[in-house]
Amino acid sequence: MLLPALAPAFAILLAPLCGSRARTAFATAFLLAAAFLTGDILLIDHSHTATLDVPNVFFSVETGTPREWIVAHESAPAWAWHVVVIVWFGVHGLTLLLRRRRPPAAPHPVLHGAALFWIYLAVRLALEKTAAWRSLVWAVGSAPALLLMLPFLGWYAGRRHWSFAAFAGALLGLAVLQRLPLIAFGYLATTRHLGTHLDTHLVTEMRGLFGGVQLGDDAVRTWTWTTLVPHATLWVAITLIAGLVLGFFPWRWARRRAGR
Question: What is the pTM of this model?
Fold first, then answer.
């Protein structure tokens, strides 16, 4: 399920570097997939209710190993998550069609990377609220999309003749920009019990960067340790380090090609 879920990200990352034929092919694939799911809803009964126990994983205080928590229970008509995917694919397909004649060019790494991250985060949250398949929910995550985009962002920076220092600074800015909406929505979800994996009010304990933490029933304290602290520190560091590792050679290669 992971590879099909990452296919839209790959197409959106590659399309700006391609010509009109490739963009049209990507757009056609997106629109055909959306049409197939639309036909599936129209021709097959999806009136029954689907349910999903939304998972999130934190390290156990006692053992230090990953522990799965069920942080929300969602239910929705079985057709609802199909609509989420139809809109997701349809918007991508129409956007590529409208932009198919633009000259190939490397987009801004920070803006393109942040937008793609936010899209995957929004789709993941929507799939959880519409009780999609658990395997699909796990696959459509911002973390796999982040790892996929980092080599492309290195290539974009190289094509734009950015220095290595500029590329590293862009990665740091990207990491912060990606996490801010996640942290903000996590606060609302946790304090107002909105559901999705960012609603962590049911988590009572975890082992974090600074040792074991007992969270109790204080929603703000829970959000601070489960969302704010890791996403403002650990995930920023992961994005920066992984971006330098995965993006260095694409950046260097693209910069040399652009120079020639």
Answer: 0.94
